[in-house]
Each structure stands twice: as C-alpha cells, then as structure tokens.
Specification:
- With about 80 residues, this protein is mainly alpha-helical.
- Helix content is about 50%, strand content about 0%.
- It is built from four helices and no strands.
- The protein has helices at about 5-10, 25-30, 40-45, 55-70.
C-alpha cells in the first residue's frame, strides 16, 4: 500500500479506537499502557508482548489492523 507523507502523519495522530481492535485488546492497551494514538502503536508494537497479559492473539489483532493501513511491515510509508 502506497500512501503519501501527509496521509501517513494524519493516520498516526488518530486515536486507536478508530482501529477495528477487539474490545479485549483495546482494554489491555488502555489499562496497561500509555498507548492512545495509532502512531504510538506503530512505534511500540515490538514491545507489546512485554505488557502483562498482552499475548500473541492481541498482538495479531494489532498487527492485522495496522497492516490494513499499510503501517505494520515497514513502520513507515512506501515512498
């Protein structure tokens, strides 16, 4: 997925509630981390498994949602 830089920065500033995360994943993020924006997820996703009770299923949920936006694999747009 190719997105321009302006669109990329707008997406990073959106709240994580706009992602289609399960309620369980969203609750874990709210209760156990300071992650509130999509950009926070992009730049911290490698550390999510260190969060208490944040397991593989929750990480896959995050990955799938970020991947839909083209943000998972490279953590930056393809330019």
């Amino acid at each position: 997925m190719k997105i321009d830089m302006n669109e990329y920065w707008k997406i990073l500033k959106l709240p994580i509630e706009l992602l289609e995360l399960t309620s369980r994943t969203l609750t874990k993020l709210h209760n156990r981390t300071d992650i509130r924006l999509i950009g926070d997820l992009v730049y911290t996703n490698t550390d999510l498994l260190k969060v208490k009770h944040f397991g593989r299923v929750a990480l896959l949920d995050v990955r799938d949602n970020l991947d839909k936006l083209g943000l998972w694999e490279s953590k930056h747009p393809n330019w």
